[in-house]
Amino acid sequence: MNRVTARAAAVRFAVEMRALCCALALAALPGCGEEEDHVNRERPASSINVTAAIIDGRVLVSPERFGAGPIRLIVTNETQSAQALTFQTDEIGGDKPGITRKTAPINPSGTATLEVDVRRGDYAVSTDDGKIEPVTVKVGAPRPSAQNELLLP
């Protein structure tokens, strides 16, 4: 084989390989995208801290009114005996199942945390001890999305 024929064969081979690669890329192209529409859902509202204290024969909660969304209930027991705190919907015959969350027994001077995603309505915050007066918490309209808040997990 002379140089001209070898060079022509090499050029022809390169052209055929390029055409083959293009054909394979075009064949694979439909598999790259999906036909489904993905909804860009907004983030939920940022979690807020709500504090509760079991003290002097009653349960104190601060704030007693806030918007619906995720909350972190931080509970402290200032009594002389272990107490478990219950956070539950305070409604009869609601359109959705109720929410009930309960801490493990909290030792005197101890703390516990409950994380709850609350919806609009009234909630009872109580203990199993009948001597401790419960409190009602009111949850209003949903808080705004945390979509544009930076440095959130």
Keywords:
153 residues, alpha+beta, Immunoglobulin-like, 2 domains, 8-stranded mixed β-sheet, 8 strands
The rounded distance between the terminal residues' Cα atoms is 68 Å
CATH superfamily of the largest domain: Cupredoxins -  blue copper proteins
Class based on secondary structure composition and strand pairing: alpha+beta
Provide the gyration radius in Å. Answer: 31 Å
Number of domains: 2
Residue share in helix: 10-25%
Strand content: 35-45%
Do you know the CATH architecture of the largest domain? Sandwich
pLDDT below 50 for ≥5 consecutive residues: which ranges?
A: none
Mean pLDDT: 85
H/E topology pattern: HEEEEEEEE
Outline:
With 153 residues, the chain is of the alpha+beta class. The protein is built from one helix and eight strands; from the N terminus they run αββββββββ.
Could you explain the architecture of this structure?
Helix content is 17%, strand content 37%. It is α+β, with helices and mostly antiparallel strands and 153 residues long. The protein folds into 2 domains: 1-29; 48-142, Cupredoxins -  blue copper proteins (Immunoglobulin-like, Sandwich), CATH 2.60.40.420. The relative contact order is 0.20. The mean pLDDT is 85.
